[in-house]
Amino acid sequence: xxxxxxxxxxxPESHYMVNLDNRLAQIKQMVDAGKYFxxxxxxxxxxxxxxxxxxxxxxAEYIVIRLDFQGIxxxxxxxxxxxxxAMARELYRLKSVKLHMSHEVQxxxxxxxxxxxxxxxxxxxxxxxxxxxxxxxPIVLMIDEVDQAxxxxxxxxxxxxxxxDYLNRDEIFTFQSVILAGVHDIRNLKLKIxxxxxHKHNSPWNIAAKFDVDMSFSQEDIAGMLEExxxxxxxxxxxxxxxxxxxxxxxxxxVLVSHICxxxxxxxxxxxxxxxxxxxxxxxxxxTMLFESLMNKLEDDKELKESVYSVLMNGDRLAYNPDDxxxxxxxxxxxxxxxxxxxxxxxxxFETRIYNAFLTSRKMQKAPIYKAGETDKPEFISxxxxxxxxxLERFSQVYINLYGEHPEDFQEHEGRKLFLLFLRPxxxxxxxxxxxxxxxxxxxTDVVVxxxxxxxxxxxxxxxxxxxxxxGEQQLSDYLDYHHLKKGYLLTFNFNQEKEIGIKxxxxxxxxxxxxxV
Length: 518
Prior knowledge:
alpha/beta
């Protein structure tokens, strides 16, 4: 029986997977054209699974050497002699590759791997050239986990040799295509080794073609995987609805898609909207390799953390700039994606996890408004239901008491963050929230709170007059239609001296709007 896999390589015979044929066909076109390129994606994005599938996909026309730098120890990156020996050893271990080597090439590879660090990179590439010359089919070299080579000058020397042979392939025999896979692109690896500006842009991998194949899962991809599962289990699930919802939360990040499905299959059993929301909450509140990696990156890089904080917490519109190193890193690690020229948090689950990290830091937990939410938490929960009207009413009272005398610029910039600080301890451990990226700015923010399968839509906005307020009511009504809800909440931060604070109920068409002004 197949299962959903979230650890290691996926195999079609053992795991429920999306169909990779279209992606493999696109990558093969690059191989056919003799391109050298890198596949750089965040952790657990399906790079190894794709390379393994691509290797089989190319076998009819090419000889594929698929190496993994995890098989080479740090000592073996020390110099070119130890590196050449390690590479030869890894090659010699590949039974399928040895079948396509002549006796002479096997003999040369065996020498390099067996002798006590007597051979240089040039000797290894001499054997590569001889092999490519003798081979009936073109040879493709794939190397996975190139991040293992970080901080090692010998790897740059290896790339430089590949580049030299590539540029002279009209006169010498070399690989048809070379594919490197890892999280870091080569420029970032190089910066670790040679941080000075002179070497920053002079990469030995400047021959690489741009890799534009989308490796994320589309809604149709997810539906196809669920259809395969449904054929085995006959659950009666609504595949179009559930695949759309899974995509909304994950934006197609492969391991997140599989993790949601795995939890429902193995723990929750019933395939419905409520359990997808519950599975999302379980994942973002648990320790996983992916989230731990993301959080470590934030803690290790101050500029990266500031960029993420600016977009997520302050609602800043950050235009994509390829020369901004912190944005470049955020894209490479998977924090950001580019939409209409601006960067956004890559998916709702990342957003929730990062929000939780920012809002539950020691500094934030000491904030008076966080403590107020934490203290009053029992009052807001009744029979497993979250009383959002009471949450907003109490927030307005606490906010005015704590911050009513602060200057306007403080309130406009910080007000909505303060509401999220108040909300976080109330729903912590049971509920989650996310913010619609399209509305995250200094005038309007739509927050969706998921609590035990129930959704609460809160539009937070700054007062800019009656006309703008009426538009906000219409926007909230439309958003409630999208979520099939009849009740919504409007939290307005009004900085006019004559404002009317408090809570009121407004009937807007067939919707009930609970409006709170602070």
